[in-house]
Amino acid sequence: MIDSKGYRPNVGIILCNDEGRVFWAKRKGANSWQFPQGGIDGDEDPETAMYRELWEETGLRAEHVQLLGRTRYWLRYKLPDRYIRKNSTPLCIGQKQIWFILRLTTDESMVRFDCGHKQEFDNWKWVEYWYPLKDVVYFKRRVYRKAMDELGALLIANDVGVNADSYLSGRLALG
Question: Residue limits of the Nudix hydrolase domain (predicted)?
């Protein structure tokens, strides 16, 4: 499902623990890390798609997490030209995403990667909240920054800085 401007509807998931660290997943067979994300099927609303993707990519169900919030609007990123499948119709030039922030409420041993029809990840780790901005593929950084800026204020942990500028300059500011 591609919209009239060439963007595929998608959800992104920031999963945090009680310390405010976030779930950072390694793409299967690659040295590429990202947050869980995935497409919205035609019969789904963004929240339904988020819970489906959460299950398929991490093995976690709604009862394993607490929904803290979501972005107010669609966040978009364009794919680099070399990743656009120019022979496909309709042409997809990027993704528009609704991002969700969740808190893990079960033991992390519940995470597994064999629930979807195609395994997306083969490893994961907890990282500092702003770490993904330095590690994600370059063309997703802007949308990650927007999602993390908006959703970071919803974290329960008091010791997580919600200002990325201080982290990106090498200092993690508290508050």
Answer: 6-149
- Which residues are paired to 96 by β-bridges? 9, 76
CA end-to-end distance (rounded Å), the chain: 40
Judging by DSSP bridges, how do beta strands 37-39 and 65-70 pair with one another? unpaired
Structure tokens at 92: 């997809």
Q: Write the DSSP assignment of 125-171 as a string of letters.
A: EEE-TTTHHHHS-GGGHHHHHHHHHHHHTT-S-TT----HHHHHTT-
Q: Residue 71 carries which DSSP code?
A: -
**Letter for the amino acid at 89?**
T
Structure tokens at 20: 């405010």
| pLDDT tens per residue, range 22-46 | 999 999 999 999 999 999 998 999 9
Whole-angstrom distance, CA of residue 136 vs CA of residue 139: 8
Cα(88)–Cα(145) distance, integer angstroms: 30
Smallest CA-to-CA distance from 72 within 147, 162, 160, 133 is with 147
Residue 104 contacts residue 60 (beta carbons within 8 Å): yes
What's the pLDDT tens digit per position in 93-123?
A: 899 999 999 999 999 999 999 998 899 999 9
DSSP 107: -
